Amino acid sequence: MGAADKKILVIKMSSLGDVMHTLPAVRTLRANHPGASITWLVEEQYKDLLYNNPDVDEIIVTRTRRWRKNWNLKTWREIRDTVQRLRQSRFDVALDLQGLLKTGVIAWLSGAPKRIGFHRKNCREPINALFTNKRASFVNQGSHVVDIYLNLIKLLGGNQKITQPHALQVPEEKASAVNAFFREQPELSAKPIAAINAGAGFATKQWKLDRFAKLADQISKELGFSILLAWGPGEKAMAEQIAGEMKERSWIAPPTTIQESIALFRHIALLVSCDSGPLHLAAAMGIPTVSIFGPTDPARNGPYGDNHQLVCKELPCSFCWKKQCPLSTHECMETVNVDEVFAAVKTSVSRFGNAAAK
Fold this sequence. Notes:
- By secondary structure, this protein is α/β, with parallel strands linked by helices.
- The protein has 14 helices and twelve strands.
- It folds into two domains: 7-156, 3-Layer(aba) Sandwich (Rossmann fold); 172-352, Glycogen Phosphorylase B (Rossmann fold).
- It has helices at residues 16-32, 64-69, 73-89, 101-109, 145-153, 172-183, 186-189, 209-223, 236-245, 258-265, 277-284, 298-301, 331-334, 338-352; strands at 7-11, 37-43, 58-62, 93-96, 114-117, 134-135, 193-197, 226-230, 251-252, 270-274, 289-293, 308-312.
- The strands form two sheets. It has a six-stranded parallel beta sheet with strand order 3-2-1-4-5-6, with helices on one face.
- Helix 8 links the parallel strand 7 and strand 8.
- The chain is globular, with a radius of gyration of 21 Å.
- The N and C termini lie far apart (56 Å).
């Protein structure tokens, strides 16, 4: 492998955190095979994460989430056109880095003669293995997903291994809109900024908002940070509730697209968050983070790298990965208190010098 005429299809469709975790693998792929043509198949809402990425020659956008909710003639035409585009590209290799039934089917439909995927026991949906014809070796539980992806990439050969992605790029007009917000808030930028992100993909991953408010007050008063409350679609009320319960001053971030979130995070010195897309976005940007984990396993899905502090109470029922607590107690998140998270913040501040502790 490595000849200029080799065409590689990377299948990693979602979500935000998963795409971030895939970037080191694709950078490693490019480093080992500089002459290959690399195409990335991704869901429409995450394509902007790949803007101007030097490791990717082409992006094919899918809308499978929309297709599932809208079965009509237009949907079938889009599916047909996507399959035709995959076929016409004549890929030599399809790399399934998601391990789902649908991604296995896509790899097979691509027509690539070599279809590389995970060991069956590492697939999120084991039936995926029926659609690949070359599989990575089994990776033990507790390995980080970034390392699992890098393990799969090794099947294409090459000695280089790169664990950090390229700096994320955004169009100048997106950055300018966000920069204007900070220019209009000079007091916010007068101190290092700690962003608080209270949202998460599902309820079991969320920490109580009143605890975020108390934590933010301590970070502001004792460590000298300005507090920026970040939020995503449908989460503004959460940021407003935290601001309303705080005693110290805070600022609520403006609404942002993914690219505008990248531009926004360039201004912050620290992110405190539950397990969420913004957490992994900040980690990929090299921003120190403090994160609170409950139903998901930080050893596998936590921020990758060494400038991150984790708070997690491991219980007999830990890492159930459920969107609804099977015990109806939410104990894994309930038992994490403000003092423990603040101690992790102080460790981060001390270690990376984000602000002078008072």
